[in-house]
Design brief:
12 helices; 4-stranded parallel sheet; binds beta-D-glucopyranose; signal; 2 domains; binds calcium ion; MglB-like_PBP1; metal-binding; Rossmann fold
């Protein structure tokens, strides 16, 4: 009888030890965190800067907690199928958390299924999955900006500038002739930014006339080509260029430089992002303004989320995070651009 009791006690003790060991790995008693990233296109300027910023933030978080961090970044080169395969490979390689910059926002189901099966949390960033997909599991997150806000701010910047500078209306017809350089169709930031910018300008009493648009998929050289076509079509009638991002605005500016146009026939340009080169262009007055897509804030949010998921016992209850996390945008002109140039470089 005594012996039986003894063995019972030993058995219970071992069971308790085993259970608590399991609990520890599940709640993440991490000494090393391995993060796998898949980008829709690693040549995208904004994405490159965002990922660099994330790597810095994660390392800083790890150093603060004596946790070593490792990051592997893969390039999906604009193919959702390739991205699905990469995610599988990253999971097989032992990643603890995945950061996914979807190629196709409407096609996240295969990635979600894979991750859920292996219990690997996923932080989607910059390209927002549809809400129903995100709600499939409580370890799926999104970090990005609010597209509507960026469009409104671009419209406000343009309205202020036009009100303060009579010569934007070069032909003095009381209307601003404009063109739009558009990002990728289907991206949450493309159509909304254009609509909101134009509506904000109209609501502030500026009379507008749309001449045309060019889809340039966020890309500088595509934007240069689209702009050359628009200039060819509308000659020096174009007074304002609203671009869905900085890189395309810079491509539009390249087109005027290529044609050796004099300053008096170049329209005013507005971008969005505040990339390193975008900020330089604002400083030089080539871009009249841009809207800061807070890559430092987004990178920090993602890095903090990674730490919370891997080290916090009550991850779902951490009130700093919800499943969808939107960082605010900010307006940048020549007056405040220096503040952003220092933020940008100090976090690298
Ligand atoms: C940025 C673009 C970028 C795109 C990629 C947007 O939020 O403004 O610069 O190319 O995201 O998904
Ligand atoms: Ca005009």
């Amino acid at each position: 009888m005594k012996q039986k009791k003894f063995w019972k006690l030993i058995f219970c003790g071992v069971a308790v030890l085993l259970l608590s060991a399991c609990a520890k790995t599940q709640t993440g008693d991490a000494s090393r965190i391995y993060v796998g990233i898949s980008c829709y296109d690693q040549t995208d300027v904004f994405i490159k800067e965002l990922v660099t910023s994330f790597e810095g933030e994660l390392k800083r978080n790890g150093d603060n907690k004596d946790i070593s961090t490792l990051v592997t970044t893969r390039d999906a080169a604009d193919s959702q199928r390739r991205q699905n395969t990469q995610v599988k490979e990253l999971i097989d390689a032992g990643c603890n958390v995945l950061l996914v910059n979807l190629v196709d926002r409407t096609d996240s189901s295969e990635i979600i299924e894979l991750a859920k099966k292996k219990k690997i949390p996923v932080i989607f960033f910059n390209r927002e999955p549809v809400t129903e997909d995100l709600k499939q599991w409580n370890k799926l997150y999104y970090v990005g900006g609010n597209a509507k806000e960026s469009g409104v701010m671009q419209g406000e910047l343009a309205a202020d500038f036009i009100r303060g500078n009579n010569d934007v209306d070069r032909n003095r017809d009381g209307k601003i002739q404009y063109v739009v350089l558009e990002g990728e169709p289907g991206h949450q930031d493309a159509i909304i930014r254009t609509e909101e910018a134009v509506n904000t300008l109209k609501a502030s009493g500026i009379k507008l006339e749309k001449l045309g648009y060019g889809v340039a998929n966020w890309n500088r050289s595509q934007a240069q080509n689209r702009m050359l076509q628009l200039i060819n079509q509308y000659q020096n009638k174009i007074e304002l260029v609203l671009s869905n991002n900085d890189d395309m605005a810079l491509g539009g500016i390249d087109a005027y430089a290529k044609l050796n146009r004099t300053e008096s026939s170049i329209p005013v340009f507005f971008g969005i992002d505040g990339t390193d080169e975008g900020l330089v262009a604002v400083k030089q007055g080539l871009l009249a303004g841009t809207v800061y897509n807070d890559k430092e804030g987004q990178a920090k949010k993602m890095a903090d989320l990674v730490m919370m998921l891997e080290t916090n016992d009550n991850s779902e209850k951490d009130s700093r995070f919800t499943q969808q996390n939107y960082l605010p945008y900010a307006k940048i002109t020549k007056e405040n651009v220096a503040d952003y140039q220092s933020t940008s470089s100090s976090s690298r």
